[in-house]
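Suppose you are handed only these lines of text.
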Amino acid sequence: MTAPTPAFAFDNSYARLPDHFFARQAPVAVPDPALVRLNEGLARRLGLDPAVLGSPEGVAMLAGNAVPDGAEPLAQAYAGHQFGGFVPQLGDGRALLLGEVVAPDGARFDLQLKGSGRTPFSRGGDGRAALGPVLREYVVSEAMAALGVPTTRALAAVTTGAPVYRETALPGAVLTRVASSHIRVGTFQYFAVRRDVAALQALADHTGARHYPQAEGALDLLRAACAAQARLVAQWMGLGFIHGVMNTDNAHVGGITIDYGPCAFMDGYHPDTVFSSIDQFGRYAYANQPQITVWNMGQFASTLLPLIDSDVNAAIEAATEVVHGFAESYQAEWLAVFRAKLGLTEAREGDAELIETLLARMAAQRADFTRVFRGLVDGSARAEFAEPEAYDAFARDWAARLAQEGRSLPGIAADLRAANPALIPRNHRVEEAIAAAVAGDFAPFHRLCDALARPYDDRPETCTLALPPRPEERVTATFCGT
Ligand code: AMP
Ligand code: MG
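From them, the structure of the protein bound to magnesium ion can be written out as follows.
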């Protein structure tokens, strides 16, 4: 009997868009594909058979050595503001969209290979990915999904058997990324800068159909994207997540987290925290993320102007009003996230101040973000403060506020646990897992992925992963690794 070829229910709507939206490109074969990890749960979600994906034929496909039936591999064109500077052409330089898989429930997902070789958008790059960044994206994006944050997913990681050359020779790898789409603000910018209104219209229609079927017209699309981004960034803030490279090519129009380069979760809380080694001025610091999102949405709005109204002034006025509405919707989302973290179910005057006061006290002492919130449930939050009186003062106000809605501990314990994870992918653990993997030991990587699949559980076998770094373990900088 011959081995089954992986069967996918492909329906490639992006490939049906006009030719100048992408470049058709086959993946470049690698010498020796080996599976590192397969996300079996996600495979099933997509209607794929994990056993088939894990077979030699499946792994060949995940490495780019075979193209499955029905795939139409292509590199997507996009532009983007990188650290505020506009680049009219970026595009998939080391990634290929294989196609869109329609899951058994009808949901549509992009299947993308990242690190699959050069494309017409590679510029000087080699089109490849090193093992470290691939594992980093795998572990962090899957953790985000388990934490309940909209995100791209990781279906598989394979090593290629070929080195990639960065500062040193590193093992090469390919990530299979799954996403509701890969439509970025930068995709719209690509056509806007070329004054290609017909393409903008086609892209807006495509985006509406995929992400916001209820939206009617470009202004509605903008409104929906702003709302989704406000919700997303509020969730990041509630987890101490710092994206690190919020360029417009990494701003997803569907409001999901994309591009796990130099991202990191904070240990000790401070609003100015930055990890990315290339973010010298803190443009993408934790506390700047909402403002940067407005800026990105402003860029999105400007690409849509010709679709909003043929009278440019009317278009600007309408779009501006929507973008200005971001602050209010973000504030509402942020309050909802942090109210839930404190076990509050009603909205009351003074809630923002209660939350801000706690955060300010945490910042003053660099208290561990995750452990303070998780520790509210059993009072262990107090021990996260070098000067616990600061916590005691908050705890009194918090108890009084809870009492206003007739709530108190331990009755709200389950709610608090559901809103405050025990586990996040701490930098030092991610780095440790990557270093071990690069040296040939994948066990810490698998252990970390397994633990992070259930971040809201207290489990004795994963409790060491919940600990903050010791001073000598602290990671202060992260790299995109491109
Ligand atoms: P990123 O920093 O991952 O958002 O990527 C920015 C741009 O650089 C995108 O157009 C990528 O496709 C491209 N790029 C990053 N790394 C490589 C690489 N190794 N080879 C070719 N293009 C790359
Ligand atoms: Mg990117």
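What can we learn from it? DSSP finds 16 helices and twelve strands in the chain. Residues 185-335 form one domain.
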